[in-house]
Amino acid sequence: MADGVLRAISSDGTIRAVIATTTNLVEEARERHNLSYTATAALGRALTGGALLAAMVAKQGQVILKFQGNGPLGRVWVDASPKGTVRGYVENPQVELPLNSLGNFDVAGAIGHTGYLQVTHDVGYGIPYTSTVELASGEVGEDINRYLVASAQTGSIVIVGTHLGPRGVEAAGGLIVQLLPDHSEETICQIENNVSTFGSFTFLMRRGMSLEAMLKRILNGFAVHALTDVQPLTFYCKCSSERFVEALKVLDKKDLLSMAEEEGQAEGRCHFCNAIYHVGRERLLDLAQG
């Protein structure tokens, strides 16, 4: 199944939802960063959450998620756009923890139970809007849900998951269901009942269930129509050799000359995609001359 995201709303305007499959982009992140199983599960959930939020709350620009907990994984950073591009990294990609009491990857233990989630919406001009909430659990989905409740002052459901096998990521994806003004108590009860019988998102994916079918399952009992066709999602990074050269231009002349004479080159690594860029001695000397 190709990665994609689908947005929908109920006919009475009281529920909106966004649902996504992210298997391929999470697998690409795993390969690029050489992630452990636990780190893959954590970053996979965060990448999915970023894709969902970008589709739900942003019309342009970027949505940036930064999880900073007290766990060994360190910072988890995701950058997503409503155009369907997503990228991200974890500070300590080799962290591996034993399975938790439920037999699942211990994402909460890796990220940490205390700390914060910072969500920034940068539309590309003006001052970016940033909201910060304390971590609810470190499980990612619950933390994104806390952010949505705090920012929108309304109930929501966030489900994100990553299923791993011996060869890598076998399924990844998730959904957000958000209650809009004028919803009724009956709506809440029906949604809660649907969630209790929904099952595992990644299990349904591995059974071949489509985004439309999973959306119908979670919103059983409601008349829902899609707002868009399924939009493709890809792991995409904005870094380039040109950007690396521009970054070098801000260095002092003596630092550029030192790299040219002592190292013979400058090397840079992108946090988001792990790409490595090199600038040779002659180019460094040119930059030093201004």
Strand percentage, roughly? 25-35%
Name the quaternary structure.
Answer: single chain
- Any idea what the shape is? elongated
Q: If you consult CATH, what is the topology of the largest domain?
A: Hsp33 domain
What is the number of beta strands?
14
Mean pLDDT: 93
The main β sheet shows up as: 6 strands, antiparallel
The CATH superfamily of the largest domain is known as Hsp33 domain
Using only C-alpha atoms, the radius of gyration works out to 21 Å
Domain count: the total is: 2
What does this entry look like structurally?
By secondary structure, the protein is an alpha+beta fold. It has two domains: 4-235, Hsp33 domain (3-Layer(bab) Sandwich), CATH 3.55.30; 241-288, CBS domain Like, CATH 3.90.1280.10. It contains ten helices and 14 strands. It has helices at residues 23-33, 37-57, 107-111, 141-152, 185-198, 201-206, 211-218, 241-248, 253-263, 281-288, and strands at residues 4-10, 15-21, 62-69, 76-80, 85-90, 115-122, 129-134, 156-165, 168-179, 224-226, 231-232, 234-235, 265-269, 276-280. Strands 1, 2, 8, 9, 10 and 11 form a six-stranded antiparallel β-sheet that branches. It has a six-stranded mixed β-sheet with strand order 7-6-3-4-5-12, covered by helices on one side. Helix 1 (23-33) crosses helix 2 and helix 9 runs antiparallel to helix 10. It is elongated and about 70 Å long. The protein starts with a strand and ends with a helix.
